[in-house]
Amino acid sequence: MSRVNTVLGPIPTEELGLVAVHEHIGYGMPGSELDTKWWRSPEQRYEETVPKLRAFHEHAEAYGGGTFVDVTGICNGRDVDYYRSLSAKTGVHIVACTGFVGGDTALPHFAAADVDYLTRQFVHEITVGIGGTGALAGVIKVGVSRGGRMTELDKRIYRAAARASLATGVPILTHLAIDAENAVAIFREEGLPLHRVLFGHVDDGVNAEKTRDVWIAEQGGRIGFDTFGYETELPDPPFWARPRRERLEHFLRFIGDGRITQVLASADANCSPLGWPGVKGHTVNYIFDDLLPDLRGAGLSEAAIRTVFVENPADFLTIQK
Amino acid sequence: MSVKSNSVYTVLGPVSAAELGVVAVHEALLSVVPGAQYAFDVTLDRAAIFEALAARLREFRASGGGTVVDRTGLFHGRDVRLYQALARATGVHIVASTGQGPEAMLGGYFLTPQTNPPTPWPAEKFAELFAAEVTEGMVVPRVERLGPAGLVATAATRSGMTATDESLLRGAARAALATGVPVSHLFGADAVRELEIALDERLPADRVVIGGLDRTDAVAAGAPLEIARGGAYVALDHIGSTDEAYLTGAERVALVLELVRAGFGDRVLLSSSATGVAKGHDGNDVAFGHVLTRFVPQLRDAGLSEADVQRIVVDNPRELLSISVPVQASAPVSVD
Lengths: 321, 336
Ligand SMILES: [Zn+2]
Description:
The structure holds two protein chains of two kinds.
Chain A: E1 4-6, E2 9-11, E3 18-23, H1 42-60, E4 66-70, H2 80-90, E5 93-95, E6 97-99, H3 108-111, H4 115-127, E7 139-143, H5 152-168, E8 172-175, H6 180-190, E9 197-199, H7 213-219, E10 222-225, H8 244-259, E11 263-265, H9 286-297, H10 302-317
Chain B: E1 2-4, E2 7-10, E3 13-16, E4 22-32, H1 46-62, E5 65-70, H2 80-90, E6 93-98, H3 108-111, H4 123-135, E7 138-140, E8 144-146, E9 151-155, H5 163-179, E10 183-186, H6 191-200, E11 208-211, H7 216-220, H8 223-229, E12 233-236, H9 249-264, E13 268-270, E14 275-279, H10 290-301, H11 306-321, E15 324-326
Parallel strand pairs in B: 4-5, 4-14, 5-6, 6-9, 9-10, 10-11, 11-12, 12-13
Antiparallel strand pairs in B: 1-15, 2-3, 7-8
Helix pairs in contact in B: 1-2, 4-5, 5-6, 8-9
Bound molecules: zinc ion (ZN).
């Protein structure tokens, strides 16, 4: 049976449709909830978020529906009850994650935990539920802390994620693909096939040069071009922005080398950011408004687009037990 | 220059300082290791937590206690709504704290913010965060502000103060200066040096309490007397639990008497660091009334006068917690 865990329950892979594989309903660093400068009323949150999801749903209709994978880690404002209401009211499938964006977003209780405890946390959220919501996590998030190298805590989290992935069949998404040798070594030691791992953010402006995307693909990993839209051309670009043309060419070059079945793409946008200003105008719908036209303009076929946005994510997200 | 008002900020608002009675000045109500609220094996049953805390507070009141100070800060399980209900239900005054620390207890928002480079928060930003919790109310994350914080609690890393620990302490001192609440600082490795940092922010010494001074390393360094000489309050705050790192009960009694005889009876504070309900850690299962019911009798037996006992368990915490209004500054509360 093919299935994927969404916040409203498991769905057949065939229902996923077009998948935005690395997105956020709202993201904030742990502790940002204490700073009232970022607070919005629930009215504002829904007002900022629902129209974006509704547009996403309408755009995705041509692909048989749309799935929004929220990769907001455990301590980053992940709010599954809220996601459930959004999904139920807009028709967008929402997949929530377990795991952490990086060691530096794991709060002290988890930062002090050993691999076994972290594994049990992840497995529980995938098989029993996230908090009291009853919703099951559909992906595991891991990542590299600020500073460019995996910390000891990052490595503990990667190892726990590998074990939880093997135990449950749910795949792993990474925040950043720098220092990939260490990540690959951990996954290999744990016996996790690398096609169960999406190495994300190979395309961001800060890290693209330092990221061995081809090497990771050669090892069998999946590659995430998932910060599409964070462009230096924006009026107020974030520090990880990159010239639009440069990112697009990077992507085209990569798939041109016969690696189209290994790539996934997304916009890493926030519907309504929780602990940072966000980037005005950048939404998950960049995929439809800008990215797909750019890809078509570059000569990509509809079949190729379906490979990147429908078939690859379906293969990746399907629970493999 | 500053003058003392006669009020103290409790979770239910300003209360006349004369009403506090005996104060347990360095305790924890609900103590949750940051992140444990998301752990698969931790349950937070509010009704059960309320019942357990209410029982402890009623026991404290029955033993003669009047006020409990929760000095866990803003990010270690503090639940203002629950504390308000507890204060109403039990009649015990509850003073809650803003502040946080040491560095290892902070969220990534303060340590690796989404800037390039990810520069940790400076003192000024902590000062604003903490002061607003006094003047505008304590945060219920992403929901509302509720009730004024009555003190700023910080702590330094045991192996030695980090740069962020110092920013926290300086920010706490600035917030205290601006709002009139005191700073309660749990020292890391060097109590005297850490007090100097707070004083360097021009906070009067009598607006600071240094905690952890019944640790053997503090006593070996002569810190209790040195801190008292510097004009700050000296908190012996592990009364009732046995821990290798701390003095024994008898040694504590001797230290209190030594401080009083040296003329620092008005600088001494006693507490237990009791944990009402602990999640994600073992906590410290000591009654809030332990100082009153078990330790004070030992002090009397050792010859401490009744006047000194009253001074230590009633007058000193009352003076510490009374809002100190900066003269010629816009006062956060009316001086009555
Ligand atoms: Zn992201």
